[in-house]
Amino acid sequence: MGSFSLEPSQVAWCAEIRELAARHLVPLAEKAEPGRINRPLVAELGRLGLLDRLFTSGALDLCLMRESLARVCTEAETALALQGLGAHPVHAHGSAELRERWLPEVTAGRAVAAFALSEPGAGSDAAALSLTAEPDGPDSWRLTGEKCWISNAPEADLYTVFARTTQGAGARGVTAFLVPADRPGLTGEPLDMLSPHPIGALAFDGVPVTRADLLGEVDAGFRVAMGTLNLFRPSVGAFAVGMAQAALDATLAHTASRQAFGGTLSDLQTVAHQVADMALRVESARLMVYAAAASYDEGSPDVPRTAAMAKLLATDTAQHVVDTAVQLHGARALRRGHLLEHLYREVRAPRIYEGASEVQRAIIAKELYAPLRKARP
To answer: Is 354 a catalytic residue?
Structure first.
């Protein structure tokens, strides 16, 4: 398969996901309580086999799932993505015991996972973590500090937590641990955010962890974090593309039927050209996302650059496309419950989480200049 085309089986699979989402997931999403984990929705994702695909498929399949779900049900898309983000380090770096204990629960939708990286003083600069893992014996530590803006907190059942094990070592002194929610000393509180799913803060008061909880090696946790983000960044772009496509579909239907100035809105050149520009941007972002995912699946060395490009282009594109769609729909698009009102709220956050747009530009520039720096005498 080429990087810029899909096989007929993949196209059919995407259509099947959209149909399943409309039939099984949207009704559950509509019953959700804002700011709470929708456990029936997560369980249904498990029953449909989509959560299992998180750990048995490559980056491109992950993108196809997220884009397909986002076009129909953003709540289901987010629930799936957070399960993957929180549990992928367990799948990729956990011991056999940790994988056997937790992955069946996650893939069945019985246990909800979370990725706990950000802190009050370490958002974009992930290497500046201050949550401390103090030695408490030869193979044990106690975690002390805070995490903030953690999706699914404080309601998740397990957390992938990144803590500082070596002071003054920057990215080289961070270790990843799997921390079940019922560990003594771990508490949390919800944050009132512009989000349909819970986002919260976690407090660690001497939370005990041992070598059995390690994800990867001691002081190698930053590699765990970046490896996870390199996989998920293109799929954040896929989420954005799905939202942009939903906005474009709605705009095509509206402008083709809305009567104005003696014809339909689509008869007005200024409107038709805006819609053409929306379609151009969506397809460009989609191709960039697919290319980045293919690079990841092929083990290409340019994954950090292409993943950053895909997330940056797609999230910026979605913001523009959804905003334009709202403009072309007029006041009706801002009515509570309208698809575009929902997308307008949902589309903003992806430009911040998993590395803000400014961070993606820094990564791209660093990767572009790296060969030149190596060539210097």
So the answer is: yes
Q: What is the largest CA-CA distance in the chain?
A: 80
Using CA atoms, how far apart are residues 197 and 216, in angstroms rounded to an integer?
29
Global pTM value: 0.93
How many other β-carbons are positioned within 10 Å of the β-carbon of residue 274?
18
* Cα–Cα distance for residue pair 89/332, rounded to 1 Å: 43
Domains of the chain, first to last: 8-107 (1.10.540.10), 113-219 (2.40.110.10), 223-375 (1.20.140.10)
Q: Contact 242/318 with Cβ under 8 angstroms? A: no
Q: Is the pLDDT of residue 355 over 90?
A: no
In the DSSP assignment, the letter for residue 119 is B
The confidence band for 171, taking pLDDT boundaries of 50, 70 and 90, is confident
Instruction: Select which of 119, 354, 358, 367 is catalytic.
Output: 354
Listed in sequence order, the DSSP H helices in 73-120 are: 74-93, 96-107
Separation CA 219–CA 163 (nearest Å)? 9
Helix (H, G, I), strand (E, B) or coil at 186: strand
| Beta-carbon count within 10 A of 235 CB | 33
pLDDT classification of 2: cutoffs 50, 70, 90: very low
Q: Which structure tokens are listed for 345?
A: 């709220």
pLDDT digits (tens, 9 = 90+) for 36-53: 999 999 999 999 999 999
